[in-house]
Design brief:
This protein folds into 2 domains: 36-267, Aminopeptidase; 286-357, RNA polymerase II/Efflux pump adaptor protein, barrel-sandwich hybrid domain (OB fold (Dihydrolipoamide Acetyltransferase, E2P), Beta Barrel), CATH 2.40.50.100. The radius of gyration is 22 Å and the shape is globular. 28% of the residues lie in helices and 31% in strands. The protein starts with a helix and ends with a strand. Strands 3, 4, 5, 6, 7, 8, 9, 10, 11, 12, 14, 17 and 19 form a 13-stranded mixed β-sheet that branches. Strands 16-15-13-18 form a 4-stranded antiparallel β-sheet, with no helix packed on it. Strands 1-2 form a two-stranded antiparallel sheet. α5 (193-206) packs across α7 (251-267). By secondary structure, it is of the alpha+beta class.
Amino acid sequence: MRKKYKDAVFFLLGGLLLVLVFASDGEAQAGQNKVFKIGQLACEPGQTVSGFLEVAAGPDPATRIPITIINGRKPGRVLAAVAGVHPYEYPPILALYRVKELVKPEELAGTLVLVHIANLPAFQRRTIYYNPYDWKNLNRVFPGDPGGTQSQRIAAVLTSEIVDRVEALIDMHCGDGNEALIPYTYWMLSGDQKLDALTREMALAFGLKHIIIDDTRAQDLKNSKYLGNTAIVRKKPAITTESGYLGRVDEEAIVANVAGVLKVMRYFRMLPGEPEFQTDPVWIDKYQVIYSDFDGLFHPRSGMGDYVRSGQVVGVITDYHGKVVAEMRAPFTGILLYIIGTPPCNKGEPLFEVGRVKE
């Protein structure tokens, strides 16, 4: 009898707590949002403001980052969507300009921050992977260094003004100018069960069919390397998405990126409508990127999305006179998530990525 009495008390207390939570949430939603500030920009509730985050000069030139803030009249989640960390990846960049036009502040609960082109110098010069001033890959230098080279300073500004100011983040990528890539999402594991459950739902809400279960990212605040991981190590939910390939301005990929952002916003109750989730995901529980040991030309023997067997020749490398110098083989049986689709290959750069489908 004593146990039953205790269970009844816990049940009543739990019910009362839920009532109080929902009541306070309802009061917050019925209230007024606040002015949202980033850098020199201030956005009143019910407004959309566009401008730049300034990146000061250092050992190389200053630059800036074009952003938009859409601040809803009602309070809610603060979400950032970031494109152009790799600026030859055009579909996410173009998608965020469409999102800007589609999201109306009067319909929005919370605040949406759009980083249109994170790496503007490389975008202007149409380079893949690397910044033209310091020849660094921006998505390998987070959280950055305010006194470092241009890529490091850009990363430092994105960390302090975007990651540290928002509550959740979508790091948007696609196949770079040399990468034939199928659409997929990285679900980055943190070891925090609540955070991992939330980011899993974000990945399903974004809607891409293939989802990589990624437990390889370093849990190091001082060397988080990747933008999405920089949010994760700060205990903020984030996913990294890939939709588009070979640097193409592909309408299907643009639409998928637009839809993904809007669906994550509905999941967070920032927009009206019920959230939707990918109902038939393909989970990838292991992945490996294969890098080149040679300078030369890469000749694919398989294509993006193909299934390959362990040890199968996926492509060959020839030197600059056409002599075969290496056969590149699949490290295990799985699906080709991406493969280089243009001839140049350089020592230390990726050739393809294989993912193992979780049974």
